[in-house]
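The methods section describes the discrete structure representation at length, but only in general terms. What matters is that the chain and its backbone geometry are given together, residue for residue. For illustration, here is how one protein appears when written out as sequence plus structure tokens:
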Amino acid sequence: MSGATAVLMTLLAACSSGGDGGGTAAGGTPKEGGTLRLAVEKEPECLDPHQSPTASARLLARPLVDSLVHQDAEGAFQPWLASSWTVSDDRLTYTFELRDDVGFTDGTAFDAAAVVANLEHVADPATKSLLASSLISAYDSSRASGPHTLAVKLKRPDSGFLGALALPNLGIEAPATLKGSPASLCQKIIGTGPFRSDAGLVAQKGIDYTRNADYAWAPKGAAHQGKAHLDGIEVKVVPDNASRFGALSSSQVDAVTALDPTSLRQLKSTSGFELHKSQFPGINYSYWPNTESGPLADVRVRKALRAGIDWSRIVERVYFGEYDAATGALSARTPGYNAALAPSYAHDPDAAAKLLDEAGWKARDAQGYRTKDGKRLKVRHLWSDPSISNLAVQIQAAAKELGVETIEENVDGGTFVERLLAGDYELIDTSFSAPGPDVLRVLFGKENIPTPERGISNNMARYSDPEVERQFDAAQRAQNQKEQFEIYGDVQRRITEDAAVLPVYSPLSTLAAGSAVRGTAFNADGSADLYGIWLAS
């Protein structure tokens, strides 16, 4: 994970739940009962997914909250809390029929009024949503026309609306709790999910879950139906990778998330443990060039960096083959990924040298760096996460062979944000998880360029292209998913032609567990699904 992710917190957006995704563990007939002891790498500052955009909040909130619709691994939408829906001809009104057999874990009934309360809560500026409100920026209003019938009006067509509703960030919470303070929701939320948490999130400790014995409304197509197999889950926050690995190998916990590649390799040769993994969909971990100013405003220089650095070799060397080298802005697992563009990301040092010559960087100084008009070709890489230091050093060395000086600037969080808003960098890095190509609009849309006036946002390449903006608008107005994917396929082509991103590798979601942990699966966003897990002993 990048420094940008760590500081901004808005750089991992994700969708969906349910029991399908990256695969399940073999295991025979599920056994009921038991408590899963899980160690996770990060504690969310806020548990409430309406407020928090982080991956850790989504992971810990999903056992508690369900969504109106479910998005499966292929990107198709299935009923969940909504049993069906229709869309008006002008695509501005969505009418949902809701299940009538669902209840919140506080004993109150789920109905259309509850959904209205949730949508209004997300849209309310007082909620200070860092992601959820932007995901439904087209939202205008909603109205309950009956106990289990709901009409939602949009200000403009938005083909990503159902995908947004599938997010944990738009998970449905008990209306009574929404009236509490944002701070109280950051600690405890109540939903309709397969588990409840009476104490909620305890700072620097974790969160405990208890099975919801009444749960009987898993999404259509989920691998598991009915109440959870586990009696409960005990989640501990253990930020240090070595400590998480030690806790697992010594059986202090049953499973851990997010081990580093070295530990993953070691685990493979350790008996009694299994590694479950799934590639995250969405935007690959990438270097983002400042296309607005500086030497990387020249597309030839950007293309030279893309072709001249052997990214796949670096990924193999740094991550021991655990991660796949990226072949586009989107990971190959993302629905709508344009595989035809993969050859554009091949290593070609001769082409890179020619591009730099054409851009005027022909001369070399005494240290071998390219120069133009007496100035060295140098780019500043802005970051704040020490975990990427080895990768950054490898990329720096490869850029030097090309004749480009990369200055590594590891700064504190406040400085990072200040310079991000000012556009005071040439390179920056992050990934962004999402189960569909609409994430391209989040990362490359002109309206998402971070500025002091606009604040923190996600277009760190500061990319702006009128044709791409037109395509984004067309994608939102698409009549069906096939049309949407075709448009976003062309967006990927345009972004590739402009070298608006330098993809590095496809991030991997992992759940390392003892062999007694069965029924493991991954959600459509790549995160671990805790609902269907059971313990063999």
